[in-house]
Write a structure and sequence with these properties.
heterodimer, A: 88 residues, mainly alpha, 2 strands, rod-shaped, B: 435 residues, alpha+beta, 11-stranded antiparallel sheet, 6 helices
Chain lengths: 88, 435
């Protein structure tokens, strides 16, 4: 049975791990957009799709990255509070 | 000046596959972060809150992102099909085809409205407490509908080996998508899926008669599996003898958390399987040895691990996973007194860690081999039959036994029960949610 509280070092590792996932997601979005531009496809259908995809993927990924950063930030906040309690 | 219009259908299909892969990566990211948040030592209301918050956040952001990528993939596959049919109609080869679709209406298909239903299942000891099935009917911007079935299952295992305690939870999230021409068809498919799920868990229910309800072949199946585990090792109470013959006790603790997430995408009828992503996170806790309160040795480390994986679909060798990495540890040995340290301090140490896991069904019971083959081939009906046959004989996973008969499914002799169904409708544009 564990005591109430946090293993601070593991928490810091976890926060970094989560924050890194936001970067991975942003890279994935950039990579997909770049790869789409390289697909051999010419015509109005292609132009509409690429424009729409570029806007949509940027918006949905931005929302996800923001949430991931927020969770990492909140975890860091709690780590700081935990450290403060531990140092009292 | 005009430009030639057209597309390489193979390139469109390849990008569609890439989008499916990206969707699975996003699924894997959700499981990975969830696993990481659950795996490290943190107990209390704050811990519960942030873990629950992540589930909510992921549902609000990563799940729609994965759904969007899959809808874009479906659109690309549609474009490839159009291109091929146009090419064949013109008597030209696909690669030299000229597109005549030219409607300009090539916006990615998006979800404009969806209805959620969830089926919670529980049972066994603590084994399938997290199991659930979710069904979503999505109304697409092209006027069509699709039904998305997501099955999430957690299964825990535990082990004791010498002074080490280990526990692990396997997480499997399988998402199948079925196309439907109308809302009515979508509702019928969803209903059939619900019946199948409930009947599979509780074969004795009145719905069992409809167990073999005919379902269309899914358009896509995505499986994300993960392992959340923790290992704790301690050596309490070991008696050590110093050079002067004094006795002391040693208490060393180390903990590691590991999560591995992988995604497999199966396309029915093509039996293509890809390894999508593997991630690993490890934290090594501090270890400390104290002798008589004065002579101390301490160490702290942080693991940096990388994962390589290959999955081959030769019918027997399903997956290989290799993990390697380094553990950088610092430590000190000597006498700590009044804030001062006396004694040698060893240089930073480096420990190589290697791990390899192979999943091979060549020597598995014929029922399991058949189930894997059916899953690989996307033969849903046959897979169900194989699973049913498997459960009838009882399946032992580590020390947990899954067994079933005509009246119930049991895990370690504990019945699995059907808890209930929840339903919500989401209007994406207005944000309105009706429960």
């Amino acid at each position: 049975m564990g005591m109430e509280g946090m293993d601070v070092e593991s928490g810091q590792l976890t926060a970094r791990h989560i924050a890194n996932k936001g970067d991975v997601l942003a890279d994935l979005s950039a990579s997909l957009t770049s790869e789409l531009h390289q697909v051999q496809w010419v015509g109005p259908d292609r132009d509409v799709f690429v424009d729409q995809f570029t806007v949509d993927i940027a918006a949905t990924v931005h929302a996800a990255v923001t949430e991931i950063a927020r969770i990492a930030h909140e975890l860091n906040d709690r780590i700081i509070r935990q450290q403060a309690v531990s140092n009292e | 000046m005009s430009r030639e219009i057209g597309a390489d259908p193979d390139a469109l299909k390849a990008f569609a596959q890439r989008l499916h892969q990206a969707a699975s990566e996003v699924d894997g990211m959700y499981v990975n972060i969830r696993g990481t948040l659950h795996a490290f030592e943190w107990i209390g209301p704050d811990a519960d809150a942030i873990r629950s918050e992540w589930d909510t956040s992921a549902r609000r952001t990563l799940v729609p992102l994965a759904a969007y990528l899959r809808s874009a993939a479906a659109h690309m596959a549609f474009e490839a099909g159009q291109q091929i049919s146009v090419s064949q109609g013109n008597g030209a080869g696909p690669r030299t085809a000229r597109a005549s679709t030219g409607s300009g209406d090539s916006k990615p298909v998006t979800v404009v409205k969806y209805w959620d239903k969830s089926v919670d299942l529980s049972g066994g000891e603590v084994v399938v407490g997290g199991t659930s099935a979710e069904f979503r009917i999505e109304q697409l911007s092209n006027g069509k509908f699709q039904v998305v079935e997501t099955f999430k299952g957690d299964a825990g295992v535990g082990a004791k080996l010498g002074f080490a305690d280990g526990s692990g939870t396997a997480v499997i999230t399988a998402t199948s998508t079925y196309g439907a021409s109308s809302l009515k068809n979508a509702q019928q498919i969803q209903r059939a899926l619900e019946i199948r799920t409930v009947a599979a868990v509780n074969p004795g229910s009145e719905s069992a008669a409809m167990f073999f309800t005919r379902l269309p072949e899914p358009e896509s199946i995505s499986v994300v599996s993960g392992v959340e585990g923790s290992i704790a090792a301690g050596t309490p109470g070991i008696l050590l003898t110093s050079s002067k013959g004094a006795y002391g006790s040693s208490a060393a603790d180390a903990s590691a958390t590991v999560d591995i997430v992988g995604g497999v995408t199966m396309t029915p009828g093509h039996a293509t399987v890809e390894t999508v992503s593997f991630g690993i996170a490890a934290g090594i806790g501090a270890a400390e040895t104290m002798l008589g309160g004065a002579f101390g040795q301490s160490a702290a480390g942080e693991g940096n691990l990388s994962v390589e994986t290959t999955v081959t679909m030769d019918g027997t060798h399903v997956a290989s996973v290799s993990v390697d990495g380094t553990l950088d540890a610092t430590g000190s040995t000597g006498l700590d007194f009044a804030g001062m340290h006396f004694g040698p301090t060893p240089p930073n140490d480096s420990i190589a860690v290697a791990f390899q896991a192979d999943i091979n069904v060549a020597n598995a019971p014929p029922e399991i081999q058949q189930l894997v083959l059916d899953l690989q081939a996307g033969n849903g009906q046959q897979a169900e039959a194989a699973l049913k046959q498997l459960l009838a004989h009882g399946v032992q996973v580590n020390y947990q036994v899954y067994e079933g008969d005509s009246s119930s499914l049991r895990v370690d002799a504990g019945p699995v029960e059907f808890k209930g169904v929840g339903s919500t409708m989401h209007q994406i544009r207005s944000g309105q949610v009706t429960v």
